[in-house]
Each structure stands twice: as structure tokens, then as C-alpha cells.
Design brief:
CATH class of the largest domain in chain B: Alpha Beta
Strand content of chain A: under 5%
Low-confidence stretches of chain A: none
CATH topology of the largest domain in chain B: Rossmann fold
Distance between the termini of chain B: 60 Å
Shape of chain B: globular
Order of helices and strands of chain B: EHEEEHEEHHHEHEHEEHEEEEEEEEEEE
Structural class of chain B: alpha/beta
Number of helices of chain A: 12
Number of strands of chain B: 21
Number of strands of chain A: 1
Distance between the termini of chain A: 40 Å
Oligomer: heterodimer
């Protein structure tokens, strides 16, 4: 018998909150990709249109928004064709909303799997972020097609150098959706009340973000509240990058980034503490 | 030279009974308040030992209590115990699905747990895609799976259906594929739950063979099963759990006999009362069951060729006038052998008074040595309505020897003894 205390695995009732075991995630990277593949393939198996279904939703939503908010309500689109305006705000918003709602379900939707096998639980929400990224890519492609079409038709907007920021915007909004999602999913393992608020809350959040209206039309006394929403600066910068409209303010963007990181870190800590014990309470 | 690859120290696990509901948040807040003040969790002091049949006073129960053991490299440890003894909880802690309430587990190398076959299979994906998915869930890298793909496919025997979605598979094929992936996992420590209960006999044999092979390669196996034959065949050491505590730990044969001694209801006379675990609507119930030999002595060890008399009293609490009574005799491994019904002997069970006593004579018993359990059931004459059903209500033992033969009769050789006529030509 050896008394040499070098163990590969040590299981204790509690772990330190800062020990997030992020290295383990790297070891399971193949699993992440396989989950992404599974989600993607399972989505269009036994359908005729296959991945084309990813285009149907944004097209329908854009048309609806153009008619209701653009034509009926007459909300300004800052001189940009309505279709292009709504499509540009919806691309990032859909990504955020999808990521949030799906990661918010991590524990309850995977309870069976988590009850049988151990692997770093964070793999599941991360795979949601990545597989939604593919969807985002397709929808961004659709947006670019419309974009080029309107340019060819001689529309009067100009892209700006902020285009370089687009990957960064995507990253920030992904992490924000992930952070909020894992917080909600951790809190719902024991108390399911929150689950009922998610879909509803996401919808409310959309109206609190400049999705159907530009920030410039917000009355001065409410502006500070809309700006307090970290999504605002991301959406506005995105519009500015492609269409040259909206507000681009580095300070606002820095604020969004900071809020995102705080939320993400809180999320990681809560998620990590819940993943240990959730099987007993789910 | 052996080294300890798994060390379990003072592991306990507490569960809260009943529903999680409005009471939970007050307990959580109370617990949090104690932690903030640096005090001990107030609910850790509570809790009964894990005995299903006893009603406890507390809402908390210790599923496992102070479990300590070590496993050496290459050891095959069989974990046995009755339902609810804490086997699954122990496995869940070892496989990191849940954490212990107190104590620690330390291990060298990778642990792979097979608590279920084909975990994470997606019905819409093909067999091949699911091999990769399942393998990755169990902790293999894509590269490892790729290098073993041919072996896995070969072992599973479903090569023909590899590109078919697994939702078209039969459940047996699914199990084969799942086990094939798991069998090629090559962890240092493999934990196997009773997954072998599924699949046909040939495949079960293959699985047991694979597990033997795994342990032969110097890897460690923890095997949980109710199948004593498989445990005996596979394991070198055993651990017996009872009410969440270690009852016995040692060589596998000692552990199995300890287990059978406990599960065997040693008396030849059982009285059923409110503590009896029974099902049925209770209109008519068994009061007692006694085993008598030829000499009208209570006894529960017999030898081949003897006669056992089962005497029981049934108590009619309702206005039923007729019933059917069934006794079923099973082996220690749970294989049903005899299904004895009154109607097969042309007997009608009628109720003239509330208490009726019957005897069933099993003459010239021909069962191989071992322990046998009796299930007793009262139903209506159609068999649809169950009045009373008690599983394993009494146990009797057939010992070696008897009037026919003195040779030893191992269970592996047979189940029923015969002495046919031999003729020389």
C-alpha cells in the first residue's frame, strides 16, 4: 500500500467557489462539438427544407414587425428601409433570446442525462451558445443578402468602420445570454417558479431594448433606463456598423461589456455550486 | 504489488423525504442562517437510518452513513444489498453524479460509470453518430473513439444498422450498442450497475466476459447486482450494504453467504402484521405461514426427498365468499420455479367463517441445495383483483444430502434432482 497522496479525482461535499474547473471543459471539447452537431442535425432530420427552416423565422418576424411597428404604428426607422432595420436588430436579438431561453433550461431538460453520467455540466450551455451561433451565421447571411440587394437598388445608407466590431458584439451578446441563462437554470432547479417568467421576461426585455424602435426616438427622461440595459449599446452599435444609423458610443459599449462579465462570473459561480447537488433537488 | 486506487472515507448522504415545496425555502433559509453564523447545519443532526419499512419521525433520512472502504488496483468489488440499502446512492457518489453530504472520495485514474446503457442516445441520430456521442459523454475523445470504432461495431453486432437512426432499433440492439461503447472505454476504474439485466443470454455472457477481461488488464471494477451468480463469478471481494451502512466487507464468498443469511427469513413460522410489506386491497389477508416437516415439527431446512407442509391462515375481513390462493417458489436469484394454485389441485377456497386454515403439502421435494423464497398471493377467482400479496414472505433451505444421494449438488450443475431408472443393455 502506498501512502502517497496524489489522487486524480477528489470528491468533497463542497468545493471552493473560485474552483470552477475550467480546465476540465477543455478535456471535453469533443463532447461540446458533438452536442452542437446533434442539435443541428436533429433539428432538420426528417424535414424537407432542412436548414432552410432557420431562415423562415427571421423572414416572418421581419415582415410582421415591418407591418405592425413600421406601417401601423409608424415608428421611425431612421430613414433606413423598414425590412433592413428590423432585420438588423432582430439578428442579434434572436441570438440572444434563443441562447437565453435554451440555456435557462439546462438542468431541467438534461436531468436524465446528468443523473447518469458525470461530465462538466457547462458543456451543455456552451454547446447551446455554439449551435445558436451557426443559426446566427445563417441569419446574418440572409441579412447580408438583403443588405446587398438594397445597396444595389441605390439605398442611401453607408456602412462604417465599426463593422470590425461585429464579431466582438456577437461575443458579448453571446456571453450575456449565456450568463443570464445559467443563472436562471441554476435557480430553477429547486424553485421552478422562475421558469414561468423566462419566456415572458424575454419578451418584456425585447421592448426594453431598442429592437422595434431606435434609441434616438426614446424620450429624454427614459433614455437613461434604456441605456442601463446592456443590450442597448450592442444593438445600436450593430446598426451603426452596417447602416450608419443609431448611436455608437465607446463608453456605452464598455458598460455593456462590464455588465456582461459581472453577470457571466456570477452565473459561473452559481452554476458550479448547483451542478454538484442539483440531482437531489431537481 | 497492489495500490489503492479508490478510497472512500466517512461518506454519508442525507436526503430530504417527501415533496420539495413551500417548506423547503424556510429550511434553506434556516440552514443558510446557521452557516453564516459559522454553526453546523441544523438538519445534519436529524435523520433516521435508511429503513424503508420503518416509519421515521424525521423528514430527513441518511441514505448512506459513514461508509469507509478502499479498493486495490485490479480488484473486482461486488456491491450487494437489498433494494434501498444505498447501493445506487453509493454509485452516484462514486460516479460524481451527486456529492456526498459529508466525507470524501479519492481516486487514481479515470472513473467511468455505467449506470445505464446508451446514456444520451439521440433517437434521430444514426448508430454511428450515437457511438461518438455516447462515447464522448462517457469521457472519450473523438480520437479514442475513432481508433476503436471497428472493435465497438464488431462487439455490438449491429454493423448492418450502423447508419440507421437508433429509434428504429430494437431495445436489445440499443443495449448492445450502448454496452459496446462502454466496454471500450478503458477507464482505470469501471463502475457497473445492473445493466446486464437487459439483453439476451448470449449477450449477457459476452458482457460478463468483457468485464472479466477488463479486470484482467489490471483495471478495477465495481459491480452492483442482485444476480448472485454473476457476482460470485466475477468478483473477488464484496461489500454488503444494509440500511445505508456497511454490513460486511471481505472475500466474495463470505459476503454472499452473509447476504443470503440476511435475506433468508430464517424462521419457519412467520406472522404477518402491520409491518409486513404487502400489496393488495386487504379484503382477505394472510395471518401467518408456517413450514412443517413430516413429524409435524416447525422446520425450514430440508433435504431432497422430504415433504414440506405449508400451513397458513387466511382472514376474511370482507363479504367475499371465494378466493384463489397462489404460492410461488423462487430461487435465491429470483428465478420462479413453482407456481402453485389451489385450482390446479381442484380445490375451491370458500369462506364459511372469517378464519380459514389450509395446508399445502409439497411431497418428495426435488430442488437442488440452496435457499428458496415463497411469494404468497390471494386473489379473486378470476385473478384480476388482488386481495393480498406478500413477496418473499418465508424462506426455506434445501441442504445437501437426503435419502437419494449423498454427493454434492452444486447449483451450477442443475436445479431439479431426478433419479430415473438406468437400464443396462
Amino acid at each position: 500500500m502506498t501512502n502517497n497522496e496524489s489522487w486524480d479525482i477528489e470528491i468533497y461535499p463542497q468545493t471552493k467557489w473560485y474552483n470552477l474547473q475550467l480546465m476540465q471543459l477543455w478535456r471535453y471539447r469533443d463532447l461540446l462539438l458533438l452536442f452542437v452537431r446533434r442539435d443541428f442535425v436533429a433539428f432538420y432530420k426528417q424535414t424537407i427544407l432542412g436548414p432552410l427552416w432557420f431562415l423562415v423565422q427571421p423572414i416572418i418576424t421581419t415582415i410582421t414587425f415591418s407591418i405592425i411597428f413600421g406601417n401601423l404604428a409608424g415608428i421611425s426607422t431612421e430613414g433606413v428601409p423598414k425590412v433592413l432595420f428590423y432585420m438588423s436588430t432582430l439578428v442579434l436579438w434572436t441570438y440572444f433570446a434563443d441562447t437565453l431561453t435554451k440555456t435557462a433550461d439546462t438542468f431541467s431538460a438534461n436531468a436524465h442525462l446528468f443523473g447518469k453520467v458525470y461530465f462538466p455540466r457547462m458543456i451543455v450551455p456552451l454547446s447551446v451558445v455554439v449551435s445558436n451561433l451557426i443559426k446566427l451565421g445563417i441569419q446574418l447571411g440572409l441579412f447580408v443578402v438583403f443588405y446587398i440587394y438594397y445597396i444595389a437598388k441605390g439605398a442611401t445608407f453607408t456602412p462604417t468602420t465599426a463593422l470590425w466590431l461585429v464579431p466582438y458584439l456577437i461575443l458579448v451578446i453571446a456571453l450575456l445570454g449565456l450568463g443570464l441563462g445559467i443563472i436562471i437554470s441554476s435557480l430553477t432547479t429547486k424553485y421552478r417558479d422562475l421558469k414561468f417568467l423566462v419566456t415572458f421576461g424575454v419578451q418584456l426585455l425585447m421592448y426594453a431594448s431598442p429592437i422595434v424602435y431606435p434609441l434616438s426616438t426614446v424620450p429624454a427622461q427614459y433614455r437613461v433606463y434604456v441605456l442601463a440595459n446592456p443590450i442597448t449599446a450592442i444593438i445600436e452599435t450593430f446598426k451603426y456598423a452596417f447602416l450608419g444609423i443609431g448611436e455608437f458610443n465607446v463608453m456605452h459599449l464598455a458598460y455593456s461589456t462590464a455588465v456582461t462579465f459581472v453577470i457571466l462570473i456570477i452565473g459561473l459561480i452559481i452554476f458550479h455550486s448547483v451542478e454538484k447537488s442539483f440531482m437531489d433537488t431537481v | 504489488m497492489s495500490k489503492v486506487v479508490l478510497k472512500v472515507e466517512n461518506v454519508s448522504k442525507q436526503y430530504r423525504l417527501g415533496q420539495l415545496g413551500t417548506g423547503t425555502i424556510s429550511h434553506d433559509l434556516n440552514r443558510w442562517w446557521h452557516t453564516v453564523r459559522g454553526k453546523e447545519d441544523p438538519y445534519l443532526k436529524l435523520g433516521d437510518t435508511n429503513d424503508r419499512s420503518q416509519l421515521g419521525g424525521s423528514d430527513y433520512v441518511w441514505s448512506l452513513r459513514d461508509i469507509n472502504f478502499e479498493v486495490q488496483q485490479g480488484e473486482v468489488l461486488g456491491i450487494i444489498g437489498k433494494n434501498g440499502a444505498g447501493k445506487s446512492t453509493l454509485l452516484k457518489i462514486l460516479s460524481q453524479v451527486t456529492t456526498p453530504t459529508t466525507g470524501s472520495v479519492k481516486a487514481r485514474g479515470r472513473i467511468a460509470a455505467l449506470l445505464e446503457v446508451g446514456t444520451g442516445f439521440h433517437p434521430d441520430l444514426s448508430g454511428r453518430e450515437n457511438i461518438f456521442l455516447n462515447g464522448a459523454i462517457l469521457g472519450m475523445t473523438k480520437h479514442e473513439i475513432n481508433s476503436k470504432l471497428d472493435e465497438i461495431v464488431d462487439f455490438s453486432g449491429v454493423a448492418k444498422y450502423l447508419d440507421t437512426p437508433v429509434k428504429r432499433y430494437s431495445s436489445g440492439m440499443m443495449v448492445r450498442l450502448g454496452f459496446a461503447v462502454a466496454a471500450h472505454l478503458e477507464p482505470e476504474i469501471l463502475i457497473v450497475d445492473e445493466v446486464l439485466a437487459v439483453g439476451d443470454a448470449e449477450f449477457q455472457k459476452k458482457c460478463l466476459g468483457k468485464m472479466k477481461e477488463v479486470s484482467g488488464q489490471g483495471r478495477t471494477v465495481l459491480f452492483v447486482s442482485h444476480n448472485m451468480a454473476a457476482v460470485q463469478n466475477l468478483c473477488t471481494t464484496g461489500l454488503m450494504l444494509e440500511h445505508g451502512q456497511i454490513k460486511a466487507l471481505g472475500g466474495i464468498n463470505d459476503i454472499i453467504s452473509a447476504y443470503t443469511a440476511v435475506t433468508a427469513n430464517t424462521g419457519a413460522d412467520v406472522v404477518f402484521d402491520t409491518n409486513t410489506r404487502r400489496t393488495g386491497n386487504g379484503n382477505i389477508q394472510f395471518e401467518y405461514l408456517k413450514l412443517y416437516d413430516d413429524a409435524q415439527q416447525l422446520r425450514n431446512t430440508y433435504s431432497i426427498g422430504e415433504t414440506i407442509r405449508f400451513e397458513f391462515l387466511v382472514y376474511n375481513k370482507s363479504n367475499e365468499t371465494k378466493s384463489e390462493i397462489t404460492l410461488q417458489i423462487k430461487t435465491n436469484e429470483g428465478v420462479p420455479l413453482y407456481h402453485i394454485m389451489a385450482r390446479d389441485s381442484n380445490v375451491e377456497i370458500n369462506y364459511n367463517s372469517t378464519n380459514e386454515t389450509y395446508s399445502v403439502l409439497l411431497e418428495d421435494i426435488r430442488l437442488f441445495p440452496g435457499n428458496y423464497h415463497v411469494n404468497a398471493v390471494i386473489t379473486d377467482t378470476t385473478g384480476y383483483q388482488v386481495f393480498d400479496a406478500i413477496e418473499e414472505c418465508i424462506t426455506f433451505t434445501i441442504a445437501d444430502g437426503g435419502k437419494y444421494t449423498s454427493r454434492s449438488l452444486p447449483k451450477s450443475a442443475g436445479m431439479f434432482f431426478m433419479n430415473p431408472k438406468w437400464i443396462k443393455h
